[in-house]
Specification:
The protein is α/β, with parallel strands linked by helices. It folds into two domains: 2-130, Rossmann fold, CATH 3.40.50.2000; 155-324, Glycogen Phosphorylase B (Rossmann fold, 3-Layer(aba) Sandwich), CATH 3.40.50.2000. The chain contains twelve helices and twelve strands. The chain has helices at 9-14, 16-25, 40-45, 84-91, 120-130, 170-182, 196-206, 220-228, 239-247, 260-263, 290-293, 297-307; strands at 2-4, 32-35, 51-54, 75-78, 97-99, 155-158, 187-190, 213-214, 232-236, 251-254, 271-274, 323-324. Strands 8-7-6-9-10-11-12 form a seven-stranded mixed sheet, sandwiched between helices. Helix 4 (84-91) links the parallel strand 4 and strand 5. The longest helix has 13 residues, at 170-182. The N and C termini lie far apart (41 Å). Mean pLDDT is 92; it is low at 312-330.
Length: 330
């Protein structure tokens, strides 16, 4: 069985409920996941796949799978998108059966229909359900990592994101770091492999000591342990926010071009999503989204302190339309 989901870390983790549905339904088969090679360790850590097939394309495109060396897959599953490109990449391997939004089986009583307003986790579980494969969109948790954390009990602040549209300004993150440290919390900064300059910028503005700057992009095992044993994760709408959900770590996530109704955490008191309602933007844009910029530092600090143990009785999240916690309000 070959599954295609060659996207980013957040996409992989949002797809875990669907992958686990596949795993349970085909327990005796080998499940191979096609995804970028940098995510191989993360994919195997889910326990939902047996092996990985390195596959990636620029700009979140559909990669070729022609380097597949095995026999035609018994079943190929397109969890990558809803267009013909991802379907065709799998069809080129001549699988015995192909499951895809772009070309559902004609024998299905209710073929799956793509809904643009549906949450990503629910979308793929419903897709599998149309094929008689049950999957639970809340089945997001990862096993506790075995490796020790590089900063146990710290507040993890991650200012980076794949696109500028989802990156809150560095100077605002610096204010949040300063305020949390002034409240007595250790704060560490993380970034991706190409985000050292951003981490250093925030650290300099916040007078953060070098020991609390985790540069170079942590390998997944270390990053997973850091998040799993953190007191709190503060980030934009990116992979680290999904990793916090996967480990049940309290989180404050800043949303801009995309509503948390589509990519946000499950409803839980320990996850807060900040968002200013408005028209959807471009999540891959090259400038910060206007709705993201409407989120102020005081809102982020207040939300963060409300989730930290020593402040839960005194700090309350701001009221209004910009908090997504145990319930969604807009």
């Amino acid at each position: 069985m070959l599954v295609l989901r060659a996207l980013g870390l957040g996409d992989l983790l949002a797809g875990v409920p669907a992958l686990r549905g596949v795993r349970r339904a085909f327990a005796r088969d080998e499940v191979v996941l096609a995804l970028p090679p940098a995510l191989g360790e993360a994919a195997l850590a889910t326990g939902a796949v047996d092996s990985v097939l390195p596959a990636e394309a620029p700009g979140r495109g559909v990669p070729s799978l022609r380097h597949w060396t095995g026999p035609p897959p018994d079943i190929a599953v397109d969890l990558h998108g809803n267009g013909p490109e991802s379907r065709d990449a799998l069809a080129a391997l001549e699988p015995c059966r192909l499951l895809a939004y772009a070309e559902p089986d004609h024998g299905l009583v209710r073929p799956p229909v793509w809904r643009p307003d549906e949450h990503e986790r629910e979308r793929w579980c419903r897709f599998l359900g149309a094929y008689g494969i049950p999957a639970d969109p809340d089945d997001v948790r990862l096993p506790p990592p075995a490796a020790p954390s590089p900063a146990p009990g710290a507040v993890v602040v991650h200012p980076g994101a794949e696109s500028a549209a989802r990156r809150w300004p560095a100077e605002r993150y610096a204010v949040v770091v300063r305020r949390l440290r002034a409240a007595g919390h250790r704060v560490v900064l993380t970034g991706g492999p190409a985000e050292d300059a951003l981490v250093l910028d925030v650290a300099e503005r916040a007078d953060l000591p070098p020991r609390d700057m985790l540069l170079g992009g942590l390998p997944f095992g270390a990053l997973s342990s850091l998040v799993a044993r953190a007191a709190l994760v503060v980030s934009g709408d990116t992979g680290l926010a999904h990793l916090a959900v996967a480990h049940g770590t309290p989180s404050v996530t800043l949303f801009g071009p995309v509503s948390p109704r589509l990519w946000g955490p499950p409803r839980a008191e320990h996850h807060i999503a900040l968002w200013k309602p408005g028209p959807p933007g471009d999540p891959h844009g090259d400038v910060p989204d206007p709705q993201l910029l409407r989120i102020g530092t005081e809102e982020v600090v207040t939300a963060a302190l409300s989730l930290l143990p020593s402040h839960r009785t005194t700090a309350q999240p701001p009221k209004g339309d910009d908090i997504r916690g145990p319930s969604v309000r807009s």
